[in-house]
Amino acid sequence: MQELSHWINGRHVKGTSGRFADVMNPATGEVQARVPLASKAELDAAVVDAARAQVAWGAVNPQKRGRVMMAMVGLINRDMEKLAEALSREHGKTIPDAKGDVQRGLEVIEYCINAAQMLKGEFTDSAGPGIDMYSMRQPLGVAAGITPFNFPAMIPLWKMGPALACGNAFILKPSERDPSVPLMLAELFKEAGLPDGVLQVINGDKESVDAILDNEVVQAIGFVGSTPIAEYIYGRGCSNGKRVQCFGGAKNHMIIMPDADLDLAADALIGAGFGAAGERCMAISVAVPVGDATADALIAKLIPRIEKLKVGPYTAGNDVDYGPVVTAAAKANILALVETGVAQGAKLVVDGRGFKLQGYEQGYFVGPHLFDHVTTDMDIYRKEIFGPVLSTVRAKTYEEALGYAMDHEYGNGTAIFTRDGDTARDFAARVNVGMVGINVPIPVPLAYHTFGGWKKSGFGDLNQHGPDAFRFYTRTKTVTSRWPSGIKEGAAFNFKAMD
């Protein structure tokens, strides 16, 4: 059986803790590798080495750091097939979905090529007699990222790219469920010219996470995962004086107005609700049609589309719509919530509970589910299911539909489908959700904008990628400079007005 490693000081290093986690093949339910789980001592030692390497890396000018990012773009494109296959093998995504995972991370690395532009400070000439003022953006030192299983390429690249481009060293603690792609990305960064020790990939579990949170050298932490863990990391990290950004769970609503193109809306719901088996923080999990006529027509269009979905392993070809969920525990949780929805009175109009895939009976496949007549007090509405389950909540009016999205504790993403510009503009202006789509079901911003949710979907002041990333991974130093000319004055004992 394959034994994975850490990536420390530019090479693969075996774990020394003696603890391991199994890496499963979610399509078969079989163990395909094992990954070492680092001890606090291993993590702390990697941080020491990273801090030592960061001094020289932080002194490299931004253009040269940008060239490393440029080389990295070429290497990721070169190895796209290899990365996607490794990602699918451990996560279960289809190959096209895995390539999309890599691609959206690659776009952030492309943005980081322009690090020199993003790191420019400000300058005020002649703020006072002979006085100039200017600001500099300087790296924090050592930053860390704790990333989830559902995007094992994209989110590590979202974290690593800006942090490294800013001149920091970076400690990545990826998910132990699918760790191979982050290790492969570390190899590519070395090939791209990143100095040894500047990027450390430390595999682990809660012990490693707590070691990151408590390590005095680590200055900033980025996290993506569930809201309870986000709250824990944000609270403990901030109490230890660190800069922290945490992105948690979601319950994304898509409002369908009576004037919407229902075929377009139905197709959007299929892709946004069932793509990647629903294991996306930006998945649409709640459809909110306005009016019973809209709801009835929408359900009629959704049922045949959902019943035609092809569920299978990534090896079955690119026409597979989605694959297995990541673990047996995830499958059990999804099906338990489905049972709860039925027990609480929701109408299960597409029932995927009996789904079995011949030859893959031990895999973690979950059939697609569609609920109608869901109410806001039901568990399937309140909780993030993170599976192929779409709930329909009927609204009588636009205001009622808007209220569903606004009143939910999560505020990651939302969408509205309508032909009416006034309604769309009102929705975008009023809804208290971080990312909004207008006739776009999954409004994930491109790399030069920022990604982040509101309410219990996000903790911290700055978002991921885009300009916010360069603010998060740097601190501003402001310099007031005076070069006296002419007759020198004596000592001054009070602040003088700059006139």
TrEMBL record:
Pfam families: Aldedh. GO terms for biological process: L-valine catabolic process; thymine catabolic process. Its EC number is 1.2.1.27. InterPro entries: Ald_DH/histidinol_DH, Ald_DH_C, Ald_DH_CS_CYS, Ald_DH_N, Aldehyde_DH_dom, MeMal-semiAld_DH. GO terms for molecular function: methylmalonate-semialdehyde dehydrogenase (acylating, NAD) activity. Signal peptide: none annotated. Residues 13-479 form the Aldehyde dehydrogenase domain. It comes from the Bacteria. This is methylmalonate-semialdehyde dehydrogenase (CoA acylating). It comes from Pseudorhodobacter antarcticus.
